[in-house]
């Protein structure tokens, strides 16, 4: 889904390379396609990396928020 988001109708040539246009599909359609082609492991491929990245980013955000809150209170 994330990779398909950048593929627009107007961007048929990028960097001199002809790109194939993909039709817009819903999340459910994409999930069904991945499940049929790659199975349940394909559906959750990359989940651990995404979870780790989100946890790291959230930790930085919340940590910065708490430091700023303590600093402002004095």
Task: Please summarize what this structure is.
This protein has 74 residues and is mainly alpha-helical.
Content-based structural category: mainly alpha
* Overall pLDDT level: 82
For the record, give the distance between the C-alpha atoms at the N and C termini, rounded to a whole number: 45 Å
As a whole number of angstroms, the C-alpha radius of gyration is: 20 Å
Percentage of residues assigned to helices: 55-70%
| Main sheet: strand order | 1-2
Number of domains: 2
Helices and strands, with pairings:
Elements: H1 2-5, E1 13-14, E2 17-18, H2 27-43, H3 47-73
Antiparallel strand pairs: 1-2
Written overview of the protein:
This protein has two domains: 43 residues, no CATH class; 29 residues. It contains three helices and two strands. β1 and β2 form a beta hairpin.
Key attributes of the depicted protein:
single chain; 2 domains; two-stranded antiparallel ribbon; 65% helix
């Amino acid at each position: 889904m994330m990779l398909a988001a950048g593929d627009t109708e107007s961007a048929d040539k990028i960097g001199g390379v002809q790109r194939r246009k993909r039709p817009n599909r819903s999340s459910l359609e994409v999930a069904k396609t991945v499940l049929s082609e790659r199975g349940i492991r394909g559906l959750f491929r990359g989940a651990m990396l995404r979870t780790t990245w989100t946890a790291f980013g959230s930790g930085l955000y919340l940590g910065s928020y708490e430091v700023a809150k303590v600093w402002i209170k004095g």
